[in-house]
Amino acid sequence: MDATSQRRGNLPESVPEQVAPTLNRRAFVRTASLAWASVPSFRLLHAQSTTQPAADYTLEIADIEWDIGARRKIHTTAYNGQIPGPLLRLTEGKPVTIDIVNKLDHPEIVHWHGQSIPSEVDGAMEEGSPMIPPGGHMRIQFTPRPFGLHWYHTHAPANRDLRRGLYSGQFGVLLVEPGENPGRYDQQQFLVLHEWEPYFAASDDGSQEIGYSSGSINGRMLGHGDPIQVRQGQRVLFHVLNASATQVRLLSLPGHQFQVLALDGRPVPTQAKVETLRLGPAERISATVTMDHPGVWILGEINQQLRSSGTGIVIEYAGQSGKPLSADPISLAWDYRSFGELAPPNQKPDITIPLVFTSKFQGHGAMDRWRINGKSYPDTDPVLLKQGLRHRLIFDNRSQDDHPVHLHRHAFELVSINGAPTSGVFKDVVIIKAGTKVEADLVADNPGPTLFHCHQQDHMDMGFMTLFRYG
Q1: pLDDT tens per residue, range 205-217
Q2: Which helix H or strand E contains 172, and what residues bound it?
Q3: Residue 71 in 3-state DSSP?
Q4: What pLDDT sits at residue 18?
Q5: Alpha-carbon span 111 to 353, nearest angstrom
Q6: How many Å apart are CA 393 and CA 373, to the nearest integer?
Q7: Average pLDDT, the chain
Q8: Strand (E) positions, 7-83?
Q9: pLDDT at 50
Q10: Which of 129, 132, 264, 454 is in Cβ range 3.0-4.6 Å of 102 for a Cys bridge?
């Protein structure tokens, strides 16, 4: 990639030759490192190997220095020397081969978030995916499915190291295109949200939480990347990914509406129009905007302080100039049910599984310990699934925090939000608000160990995980 494209605010679509990482879930690292050669879906590469055909993509994990703007350079870990990592365009049903090179001095792992693939290649050591050793190479092969907006990222713990895990720059977009009839739009833009310069802060009860000094879209703070240039009447498809380690984001574009086409890469039955997009960590939204309000605008955080810290990007109409403008949206409403079936069918589950979320105060200046059904990982009880059956997952959040919960290798259908029925919305991440209950149906159709966890890095590191197992 040349210097000009490195400076662009829009996500580069070329795929450079290299990448970056971070990790440490100690017991798992030790055991996983013994399993590399025995996992058939992986092949360990040697630097001198010349006999294997070239991979479709290569990701290199390495430490970099990155200029996010406003004379702020950060030292982090990233993929292929860029933030976000290279856009990987795959085709549903067409096998792909990816080489991963770890140039760090500690093991790493890459998770293929949103893909219904075997546990061995999913990229979670809790499921049995092998770690990539320091200085090591690994080749993985899988068949992408389903189509849609997905992503790849480190699945290494950070614990109390705010340079590792998803506090780092280890994330990138994975776009799986349908084998036939891809959508056509005047423009397709990718927006990847992230925060930088994390620090420990005190919460209201004295326990620790994570704060940030700056934010970015596509690796640049607001005003320090190239604007997205549009023309009046264009229909622009925005693919938005919240790659934050911990933060929920609310976005708006003054004078415009988003028509939501897909959530977490999966088409929605009702393509409702909204003024605000809400994304928890790891959530994705694909939405179109008709450019019918000429000017120079900021597409960014509705919170002025967060927008000023960098979470925004300029939208510039042809022939328009001047200072980019922002404005509060008229409506902040966001409800997953808006995108569901108008008349939800009444489907009965074969099995009901309650999952109760609670926290345990660890003391002033410490991080809370998180529990599922009264237990913290790795001491949680596995959730047993029966292949082919419909399981109703009851997410019961009895804590004072919101939780973006994620299930690997599967999608679930939302069927009830605080007692209000819905259907037709399939996701792999859903925000469970504090003190609320969400029900979702999971059809067990992808055997193998499957990780379930809160996608907030600090919650996951502090026990908010368990394994689903087929039995």
Answers
A1: 778 899 999 999 9
A2: strand 171-177
A3: coil
A4: 29
A5: 26
A6: 13
A7: 89
A8: 42-45, 57-69, 72-79
A9: 54
A10: 132
Nearest to 445 by CA among 394, 407, 389, 392: 389
Give the pTM.
0.89
Query: What tens digit of pLDDT does each residue of 174-226 get?
Result: 999 997 766 679 999 999 999 999 999 988 777 889 999 999 999 999 999 99
DSSP 132: B
Report which of 68, 5, 4 is spatially closest to residue 217, judged by C-alpha positions.
Answer: 68
CA separation for the pair 272, 337 (Å, rounded): 10
Q: Which residue in this structure is represented by tokens 């001095």?
A: 105
d(CA 110, CA 315) in angstroms, rounded, equals 33
- CA pair distance 329, 333, nearest whole angstrom: 10
Half-sphere exposure for 439 (CA within 13 Å, toward CB): 18
> DSSP letter at 47?
T
pLDDT more than 70, % of the chain: 89
Q: Which two tokens stand for residue 436?
A: 């609320």
Residue 459 CB contacts under 8 Å (≥ 6 apart), including other chains: 370, 401, 403, 453
Asked if residue 302 lies in contact with residue 285, where contact means CB atoms within 8 angstroms, the answer is: no
Residues counted in the chain: 471
The tokens for 20 are 């970056």
Who wins on pLDDT, 469 or 35?
469
Residue 89's closest CA among 142, 13, 16? 13
Tokens linked to 17? 């030759």
Instruction: Assign 143 to helix, strand or coil.
Output: coil
Q: Which residue has the tokens 């870990």?
A: 77
